[in-house]
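Hey all, sorry for the wall of text incoming. These are the two entities for the joint prediction.
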Amino acid sequence: MNFKIMSVVFKKEIKDMFRDKKTIILGILIPLLIFPVMYGFMGKSMEDSQEKVQKNLKIAIKDEGNSSFNEYIKSQENITIIKSQDLKKDVQDGKIYAGIEIPKDFDDSIKNDKQVELKIVYDDASQNSSMAMDIIKSMADTYSKGVVKERLIKMGVDESILTPMVIKEDIVAKEKTNVGRMILSMMLPLFLIIYSISSPMAAATDLGAGEKERGTLEPLLTTKASRMNLLFGKFFAITLMGLIGTIASITGLLISFKTSPSLFGGDASVVFPAKTLIIIAALTIFVTMIFGALELSVSIYARSFKEAQTYLSPLSIVGMAAAFSTYMIDVKDISPVYLNIPIVNISVVLKEIINGIYNPMHIILTFVWSGVYITISILFARYMFSKEEVIFRT
Amino acid sequence: MIEIKNLSKEFKNIKAVDDISFKVSNGEIVGLLGENGAGKTTTLRMIATMLKPTGGTAAINGFDLVKEPDMVRSQIGILFGGEVGLYDRLTARENIKYFADLNNMDDKEADKNIKELTELLGMEEFIDRRVGKFSRGMKQKVAIARSIVHKPSVMLFDEPTIGLDVTSSVIVQDFILSCKKNNRAIIFSSHSMQEVEKLCDRIVIIHKGKIIEDSTIEDLKEKYSGNLEEVFVRLVGGKDEL
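and here's what came out:
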């Protein structure tokens, strides 16, 4: 091993890639911005739509009997009553969000303890109309409860008879938890693995098949540098580029968690302790190294850039499938089998530590296995790099 | 000095190079002639240690190519024809320096050699520009400088003028002659009889992996009475008929 030569190759590859605008845009800028922009737009349009409906609920009421429910609705805030001859048509045209049809004998029926049918006309294809429907339903519900209460009082019965059981939630968690955090614990391992697999791909394609296609590989092999030094220089450059891509993507994801919390079930701001961050970083580096070496092996086998991309797709699908397999897994009940399956074990430990579970056995086992996978991947890359039929496969 | 001893290479039962032996002294240009697929490139790749021989060996300045491949590579420079294989996003200087570094040169020596080569090849105007937009001739100059920056004593040329225009071909030919003047041992593989006649002291004709002739151009012409092209066709064709 000649570290000087390895660092020469490493530095040259990094310089070369950073001068490529395509690498900067596709590998760093887009992963960094795609989620904040995408979720930003989604969140904004959802919030706008919600605000629009909540602040000005445009509805029409068809009520021949001038019922008390009609009065109740009118008394609510932010309601705009619009006159309508044809409820269905006006809902469809978007003139009103929803229409309410109150039967003529509404008040009489309520008075005589009968059940009344209230008809709400809405368009389930329209988000605004669906939201209006929910608001009207909740108004009707509140009104119903009031009627039930009156009826029970009239009958001399305590209203608590309707709720024989009251549930008091007592959450067992070390820290305050919320839906956002749960979503994060499901998504973060998945995204970390997917990005660690996909981020080194562009660099691996360029440094293997790209060299072959440009005709730069052969001159490189005629220098005094040994193939192993060339391979390791390239491998470390691929790993670094992969990590930069992963960090950009995860930063983008975390920014969107912060800027669009409504899309992730509320505030997802989680501060991880240092040991969690160290383990997350180590596991991310391991996956990047494993796939960086495998992708370089495949890339060096390919005749061209295009061929390398074709071969690399199935490889990434296998890795992603392993990550997906643990998406819904319960971290409190992990089968030992999972801890011996490549990538699956990394995903499981990531889930555990994000949820604040530190099982030393699981962590050590996964680290040891990761070391084995990295060694195997590098040995495979070494084998491919030293094989004449692979290097001169044109 | 190159000394090839019974060198062979077999690919899946096909003998690409079959037991060839010849020598190239310092200050001598030996032309390696042969048709496509005759085994010229395989021979050069073996001498450059890119391919491992399946039989025989070669000594480059006394270093055995099987036992000391790293030392062999430090002795040789190689210039390929066709695509010159430069890094487009690096400058001409960075391309040359990369190869100097890979050949384990220290910075001072590398910078000195690059300066000399820049002047020698007239690259002052573009040495610090990225090679992506260079003309073929400019790229060829950079490739030449890259092949010789570590001052090798043995030069291998694999059809270096293929696809080049006249001006660029002349640059390469002049470079080969300057290598001879500097007492380097040179193997020059080509298809062009005029180039071989112009540059080489001796020629080795290779056909289906075997050497079928190894002598000076004068001796060949005298022996087979004809110009080099006619001699080559007769020799290669004659072997085919056999």
